[in-house]
Amino acid sequence: MSKEVSQLQLAQQSFDLIKKDLGLAEESLMLEEQDAFERLHQKLTSIVQYLLDKDFGRLLNAMYRIDISEHQVKDILNFGKPDQIASELAKSIIEREKQKVITRIKYSR
Q1: Given 7, 48, 55, 90, which is the most exposed site by the fewest CB atoms within 10 A?
Q2: Gap between the Cα atoms of 21 and 89, Å rounded
Q3: Residues in contact with 61: Cβ distance below 8 Å, sequence separation at least 6, in sequence order
Q4: What is the DSSP letter of 3?
Q5: 76 neighbors 30 (Cβ within 8 angstroms)
Q6: Where are the alpha helices (DSSP H) in the chain?
Q7: What is the pLDDT of residues 45-97, one digit of tens each?
Q8: Sign, Cα dihedral of 42, 44, 50, 52
Q9: Average pLDDT in the 17-23 region?
């Protein structure tokens, strides 16, 4: 990244986008520099698991809004280990939102 942003800032801005795209206005997460993305992944995995179990349509709509390809989502759902699907979807969400944050930072300065 040419414009230096800390991992903590990147993780927090990614979480802010995730909250917006998943409609999680009330969710909060305390992040620290050394494990920001690991904590974000843990939190998001539990949210994704809940949506898989209780509101699959909302999850699919969010994946579309986040701009994760239908092919990628289908691959995870069809070929992922059942106990790893939420984690893999969370990784995909974090990576895509992180890319958005990096792009916004790059072009805003």
Answers
A1: 55
A2: 14
A3: none
A4: S
A5: no
A6: 7-22, 36-54, 56-66, 70-79, 85-108
A7: 999 999 999 999 999 999 999 999 999 999 999 999 999 999 999 999 999 99
A8: negative
A9: 89
Indicate the average pLDDT of the chain: 90
Cα gap 1→83, rounded to integer Å? 34
Residue with tokens 């230096």: 4
Identify residue 84 by its one-letter amino acid code: Q
For CA atoms 61, 27, 16, 50, the dihedral sign is negative
Contact between 94 and 14 (Cβ < 8 Å): yes
What pLDDT does residue 1 have? 43
Instruction: For residue 85, give the nearest of 63, 52, 55 by alpha carbon.
Output: 52
Helix (H, G, I), strand (E, B), or coil: what is residue 20? helix
Contact 77, 85 (CB under 8 A): yes
The residue assigned the tokens 């805003």 is: 108
- pLDDT at 5 (0 to 100): 75
Mean pLDDT over residues 3-24, rounded?
85
